[in-house]
Design goal:
The structure is a single chain. The longest helix has 25 residues. With 508 residues, the protein is α/β, with parallel strands linked by helices. The strands form three sheets. It has a five-stranded parallel sheet, sandwiched between helices. Helix 8 crosses helix 9, helix 14 packs antiparallel against helix 15 and helix 21 crosses helix 22. It contains 23 helices and eleven strands. It has two domains: 290 residues, NAD(P)-binding Rossmann-like Domain (Rossmann fold, 3-Layer(aba) Sandwich), CATH 3.40.50; 196 residues, N-(1-d-carboxylethyl)-l-norvaline Dehydrogenase, domain 2 (Orthogonal Bundle).
Length: 508
């Protein structure tokens, strides 16, 4: 895992050159020509990437840029856009170069900026599918990567390929002119098989649990529709590693251009501003060559499971815990909640409870906890509570319920774990924060109705009746009573008292 400030405390490699030369370039391309870490004219395209949006440009393209600086120039990227043309339109006049600023604002201020040169070319896949397929056939392409969001995989509600998806229906009828990432991948693998070229490794970089397995299932389902022998070939020869990806990339703002101009004296049509932290964990199972990513901080592993636990429980679940508290407290952004001492202390102790319930070594959990609290305190990447609080019931079921079950099984107190959920439910029942601000939950109507009519949490989650359910409902009712009686801030302080820190509830 990358240290939070390991990227941001250095000076940009371009700053020193500009100060020495006394030159202020007007364009990104001029700046790159003056001083660059590698020669882009010598770049080979070794990676074809579907979905070259903002997250990709802040994450994988940034990582590959660092790797190319080590002079391994076979890993240039060609981005393929299947939907929006906006990124191509913005970056093509700049030769697909752009600035990336890493920014932290909190108790300290850290910032740096670089020009990223890893994207050698971009193609409009909808307009030029043949060009994309020809490139994917090339023996020099060893990786096909994706950040197409969940929708781009054409999945049904069970995370299986939706054969009736309009894009899939089209691609099965017109396999040489695909419109979906799945269609492109299968057709390219078929062509490589027929030409005797080793299959590329297909790497999902989307925020899906066990994303490689989901992608592989979708590819195999599609391939079976085309040719069962092709599906068998893919099973035996191609690989789809799971990954964990993480970096907070805010939406674009006009003010983003000010950072690159101030730090690099350059005007950029499409700058990226992001946090200093990034994480990229990859299962080390590749069907052909791969970059030596571990040399620049990528975690290569044989077991992705601990890293999935860390992200889902200490980032995704904690995000929802914060949102549940903040809607009750009338707080607008995550970093504002963490500025309040009672919130910060409570959440730190809550994360200790999560650590005790999580099947990952404590040292890994503790390191991750410290990173998460620092990251979520970053004023440069403000995250609206309104956004995070949407579909809270789904997030409780996906991220929080497994923690509650493990906590009960391990004899870990459920008191702090239940308090944020109780705060959220109480706010829905009353229709307002404790400051009197109106609150309308963006959630399933049946969930809202169940809470408003006083149904217990266990019933809302659809849990089987039993002791665990009784305990969850008891702690939830107790927490709601405490919040009504004391107010949220006082209840957070009360639940953070020392006698709760090691409070163990017997599972017997």
């Amino acid at each position: 895992m990358k240290d939070y400030f390991s990227l941001s405390t250095r000076s940009s490699l371009f700053d020193a050159g500009l100060q020495t030369a006394g030159i202020a370039p007007a364009t990104v391309t001029e700046l790159w020509k003056q001083q660059s870490p590698y020669n882009r004219s010598e770049l080979n395209i070794g990676i074809v990437h579907f979905g070259p949006g903002r997250f990709f440009r802040a994450h994988l393209a940034r990582i590959i840029h660092q790797h190319l600086a080590q002079k391994d120039l076979q890993w240039g990227i060609c981005g393929v856009s299947l939907r929006s043309h906006r990124t191509i339109e913005h970056l093509q006049p700049q030769d697909f170069l752009y600035t990336l600023t890493e920014l932290y604002i909190g108790d300290e201020h850290h910032e740096s900026a670089d020009v990223i040169g890893s994207i050698k070319h971009m193609i409009d896949g909808a307009a030029e599918p043949s060009t994309v397929l020809e490139l994917m056939e090339s023996p020099t392409v060893h990786l096909v990567t994706l950040t197409v969001t969940q929708a781009g995989y054409c999945l049904d509600s069970r995370f299986a390929l939706d054969i009736n998806h309009p894009g899939i229906v089209h691609d099965l009828k017109h396999s040489t002119h695909p419109t979906t990432a799945i269609g492109f991948i299968v057709e390219a693998l078929r062509r490589r098989r027929d030409r005797g070229i080793a299959p590329f490794t297909t790497l999902s970089c989307d925020n899906l649990p066990r994303n490689g397995e989901i992608l592989q299932r979708a590819v195999l389902t599609y391939a079976e529709q085309v040719d069962s022998s092709l599906a068998e070939y893919i099973v035996n020869n191609a690989t789809f590693p799971n990954t964990v990806v993480d970096r907070i990339v805010p939406q674009a703002h006009e003010a983003d251009k000010e950072h690159s101009y101030r730090l690099l004296q350059v005007r950029d049509r499409s700058p990226i501003v992001t946090e200093p932290f990034w994480q990229f964990v990859v299962e080390d199972k590749f069907s052909s060559d791969r970059p030596m990513w571990e040399e620049i901080g990528v975690t290569m592993t044989d077991d992705i499971t601990p890293f999935l636990h860390l992200k889902s429980r200490f980032l995704n679940a904690v995000h929802s815990f914060i949102a549940c508290l903040a809607v009750r407290g009338g707080i607008e952004c995550v970093h504002q909640a963490l500025r309040l001492p009672e919130y910060h202390l409570f959440l730190r102790l809550l994360m200790d409870d999560i650590t005790a319930a999580t099947p990952v070594v404590d040292s890994m959990c503790e390191q991750y906890v410290d990173q998460v609290l620092l990251r979520l305190s970053n004023e440069a990447t403000p995250d609206k509570i309104e956004r995070i609080a949407a579909e809270t019931s789904r997030k409780i079921g996906k991220y929080i319920a497994p923690i509650l079950k493990d906590a009960h099984a391990q004899g870990v107190s459920l008191r702090r774990l239940m308090l944020p959920i109780a705060a959220w439910m109480l706010t829905i029942r009353e229709g307002a924060s404790e400051l009197g601000q109106s609150f309308e939950a963006n959630d399933k109507p049946e969930v809202i109705a169940a809470i408003q009519t006083g149904k217990p949490l266990s019933e809302m989650l659809g849990l089987e009746p039993g002791e665990c359910c009784d305990l969850l409902d008891l702690e939830c009712d107790r927490a709601m009573w405490e919040i009504r009686t004391r107010g949220l801030s006082a209840t957070l302080r009360y639940y953070s008292q020392e006698h709760f820190e090691h409070d163990i509830v017997s599972a017997a």
